[in-house]
Amino acid sequence: MSIRLKGTPASPGVSIGPAFLLNIEEIRIQKRNLRNKEEVEAELDRFRAALAHTRMELEQISDQVSDIIEGRQLIEVQILLLNDPSMISDVENRIRNEQVSADYAVSRALYDVLERFSLIEDSYIKGRAIDIRDVGKRIMANLMGTEQEALLNLTNPVVLVSRDLDPSQTAGLSRKQLLGIVTDLGGSTSHTAILARSMGIPAVVALKDVAKYVVTGQTVIIDGIHGNVILNPNDDELEYYYKLKERYNIAEAEIALNAENPAVTADGIDIELSANIEFSLEADQVRRFGGNGIGLFRTEFIMLLTPEAEDDEEIHYRAYRHVLETLNPDPVIIRTLDLGGDKFLDSIPTKEKNPFLGWRAIRICLDRPEKFTRQLRALLRAARHGNGRIMLPMITGYDQILQVRVMLEDIAAELDREGIPRGEIPPLGIMIETPAAVLGIDLLLPHTDFVSIGSNDLTQYTLAVDRGSPYVSKLFDSLHPAVIRQIDIVARKCKEVEQWVGICGQMANNPLAIPLLVGFGLNELSVPLTLIPDVKEMISVIRMSEVKTIAKKALTMKSGNEIRNLVFDYVKSRYPEIILDEIHRERNDGEN
Ligand code: PEP
Ligand code: MG
Fold first, then answer.
1. Domain with 135 in it: what CATH number?
2. Could you tell me the pTM of the whole model?
3. CA-wise closest residue to 523 among 293, 291, 271
4. pLDDT tens for residues 151-195?
């Protein structure tokens, strides 16, 4: 029987194919029956080898943390659990008596123990469940090999299913291996979703417990337009979705024909339309998709993909140089490291309860000047190869901009002393991502050369809705009156002082937001590479004279839904129905 699940659409498109389950934590392992005594013996051996390997790993960790008493104690508890004869015989009995694989036997044994623990009130004992789960995960990883390795060796493409995906895991995958991404956690603006869009593969997130139901190899339909996922689809469902996929692909192919044309409204107003990229090689495709420059290069992905880049100025330099040379003379906005939030490196260990409100982005950079200096040196060196601009994320006060200016001057002087060639210090801009930056924009504008609105974070911080949480994803609404009013404020204040203002959050590729953003008078929209043609199409069907009125009217409306309906009524019958209708219907259905 098929299972239909509903999540948040995170990257458009439809795919149908076999599932691949990544991340074994809390996931049911597919049951594999053994056929004979030899197979049973082989599984017992495999289990014992995995235990021995896990023991060795834990002992190594224990040696490494020998100076930290608490750390050592924790590991010792885990070693004790690993040697627990009742756990070992429980698993061995399952393999022998039920004739099942070691992976399945361990997962069931683990599941039963954790079930029992969940019923216990005592918080100390409950805490032990974490150790048991940790040990269990280690054994499972040793039994299964790393799934990441298995994934990299796949010959046929798969729909990747996971409880959660770290951007660094997604970043290591190639488009050829992926039909789509489906996760329990995450929101439409989480960084895994952003990567899926930049790779042009469908994604649905915030499904809450899809990973519990999926088994590797099972057929999955992923509908990234509406956020539907169907496991084990029946013939009718398959037929429906093959047709939907075809309709969507035809609409997209038609839109792609306009990639060559400039982004211009139906009444002849040019709009700058540029690309958001995460990897330097994406720069090669910007012109093909019809973008005129890069509005956001998320440079932290260089480190997430290549951890050595943290201490290696050259890797950064080469990446920036490649992007600048490729796009020259078009503008390239390079955003400085936006680590923290949902993007972590081992060297930035954070144990904060609210990482998005904590040590993130410019805050880390200013507190860790050695890391930041490496990036700024690379940027200044690369600056002579193109039309670069530097943009600072998560700014809340003008002093942060001034500190970076001083650093840039110092680094420029240092490079000159060292005789290392460099370009002029590029224009320095900021992202408007916090209500503090909007309400204090008059304090920031005298110190910045340009601004770009990061509507993902602006929505998150305005509505107090974690952009990565599936539990509040239906409250995440960039068309909420409180968000669009702030965009209007920023646009007006910038206009007053003739400051260039763009937007690079995901709102810029939402068909129902584009008419408003153009109507507010933003200079530029920067969107994921693969969505440039769709946005260009929307720009070509609207009239500046009309969207100005629509935008003004939107500012008087009471809810995101009212605003969506207003824009929908304006653009319907001008834009491909398949994209528009569904986005509108789903969103209205999903909200109260
Ligand atoms: C944003 O916040 O809107 C933005 C573009 O930055 P990021 O999504 O990388 O946080
Ligand atoms: Mg942001």
1. 1.10.274.10
2. 0.71
3. 271
4. 656 667 889 888 877 665 665 566 777 899 999 888 777 777 777
Q: Any idea what the CATH number is for the domain that residue 522 is in?
A: 3.20.20.60
Length of the chain as a residue count? 592
Report if residue 476 sits inside a domain. Answer: yes
Q: Quick check: 105 and 95 in contact, CB under 8 A?
A: yes
Q: Based on the domain organization, do 10 and 65 belong to the same domain?
A: no
What are the pLDDT digits (tens) for 191-250? 777 778 877 889 999 888 887 788 778 899 999 988 899 999 999 999 999 998 998 888
Active site residue 53: no
- Annotation says 191 is catalytic: yes
The sign of the CA dihedral 349, 506, 320, 490 is negative
Q: Report which protein residue has its CA nearest ligand 1's atom 4.
A: 454
Token pair, residue 299, equals 């440079």
Helices (H) and strands (E) in the chain, counts: 24, 16
Is the distance from the beta carbon of residue 300 to the nearest atom of ligand 1 less than 6 Å? Answer: no
Residue 416 Cα to ligand 2 midpoint, Å, equals 33
Which domain does 89 fall in, by range? 37-144
The reply to whether 71 falls in a domain is yes
**Structural domains in the chain (count):** 3
Domain assignment present for 151:
no
Pocket mutation for ligand 1, best pick of 188, 297, 504 (most atoms within 8 Å of C-beta): 504
